Structures are given as structure tokens and as C-alpha cells.
Amino acid sequence: MDEVSIIVICGTIIFLLTAGFIISLFYSYKQRLVAYLREKEELKIIFQNEKLKAQLEMQEQTFLSISQEIHDNIGQILSLTRLNISTIKPDDYAATEHKIITSKELLDQAIEDLRDLSKRLNTQFVTQQSLSASLQFQLNLIQKAGYHTTTLEVHGEEEVTLDPEKKLIIFRIAQETFNNILKHAEAKHISVVLVYLPDKTILSIKDDGHGFEVADKVDAQVPVKGIGTYNMYYRARLIGAEFSLQSQPGEGTLAHLVLPATS
Predict the structure, then answer these.
(1) Where is the signal peptide (predicted)?
(2) pLDDT tens, 187-211?
């Protein structure tokens, strides 16, 4: 075998090896691309399912609170109005005028309360409003019950470009936090701080309730033991946010969420 043949054979082998390597790289890249697209689609489906779940949970909680509101507030107002009207004495002009004015004020209050209820029945209300407006609306409803005082502080420019779906998830996390406070904390005051920074949005919810040992609710392997609390952690991760609970017995609880601007 002469030198030229050896060179040709070596060149052919190198060519075949190079071609095989390139084909292998291309095939590997294609597989990774397909896996990436599949994972991306699965995450999209998971996010949409979680969004739908959050909407349904929000509606369920809304219906429960509306039922209580109608029974405890609007029903009472209408009963007082009926009582006022039924005790009107046409021959007592001064008392009649006072009862009519009082009845009108009660009906005005009932109408205003019904308007609030209609807003809460609108499933698009949260996504159409700013996050601070939705939080303030929720805090007003809590304070209106008469068992808690509430405050909301907003710092920085309101983020009008915040993704509506992420806004819904953040609001649902806040709503779940409020629900836990109302059910378990025996708190008197709820304070909410919303901070808009160029690179992130921060939401903090603090109560002055009896608090708890975080270790009883949080586990190193399973993020949280309570279903409601687990959902808060899970949904925060789903939108690229960090969520934490800080608490000590007798010192209340702080729920803290940080959403990076690029998430």
C-alpha cells in the first residue's frame, strides 16, 4: 500500500469520524430541544392549571364571604329599615321625617354594600385592578367585620406592567395568608407593606397574633405540612418568587414574598 492510499484511507476515516461526531451532536441537540420544548409545554399546562385552581379557590372564598356578608350585614340593614318603616306614625311629623331619613341612609348603605359584593363576584376584578387596590379592597372587607384593624403601605411606583396572571397568584397567596390569620392567629391588627423596586416587587403581611413554631409547619424535605401553606410556597415558586414565613410563639407572623422583575 503506497503513501497516497494510506493518506486517502486516513482522510476517509477522519471524515467519517467527524461526520459521525457532527451527526451525534446534532441528534443530541435535537433530543435536548425536544425535551426542553416538552418541559416548557408541561410547565405552561401546570401554570394554567394552577391559575384556574387559584381562580376557583378565590371564587369559593368569595361566595362564602358574600353569604356571611348578606346574613350579617345587608340582612341586618334591611331588617332595621323594615323596622323603621313599620313604626312610622303619620300623625307624628317630626318622628316620621327622622325615620324616613334614617331609612334612606340605611338603604344607601345597603346599596353600597351590594355594589361591593358585585365587584367581588366579577372574576376579572383582581386582574383589572392594581395589586394595591385589590389588597386594600380585601383589607377593607376584613376591617368592616369589626374584629381587626388593618393598614396598607405602598412604596415606589405602582407596577402597571405586572403580569395579570402573576398578579392573580400573588393576590391568592395574600388571600390565603389573610384566611390563616382570621382562622388561627387571634390577631387584632394586620399590616401589609407593598414595595415596588426596579428589580423586584416585595409583599409583606404581618399580624400581631399568637404566632407559632415555624418548624411545626415547615419541613426540610416537604416544604410545608399544611395544605394552605404548601400552596403559598408552591405558587410562589411557580411564578419565580420567593416566599417565607417567619414566626415565634407570642410574636405574631410575617409572610414575606419577593418577585424578581425578570421572573
Answers:
(1) none
(2) 999 999 999 998 899 999 999 999 9
Exposed, middle or buried, 215 (CB in 10 Å: 0-12/13-18/19+)? Answer: exposed
Say if CB 201 and CB 195 are below 8 A apart: yes
pLDDT tens digits, one per residue of 13-38 = 877 778 777 888 888 888 888 877 78
Chain segment 98-138, per-residue pLDDT in tens:
888 888 888 887 887 777 767 666 656 667 788 998 899 88
**Pairing between strand 200-207 and 253-260?**
antiparallel
Please give the radius of gyration of the chain, using alpha carbons only, rounded to the nearest integer: 30
Q: Which long-range contacts (CB under 8 A, 24 or more apart) does 49-52 make?
A: 50/169, 50/234, 50/235, 50/238, 51/165, 51/168, 51/169
Sorted by where each starts, the structural domains of the chain and their CATH numbers stand as 131-263 (3.30.565.10)
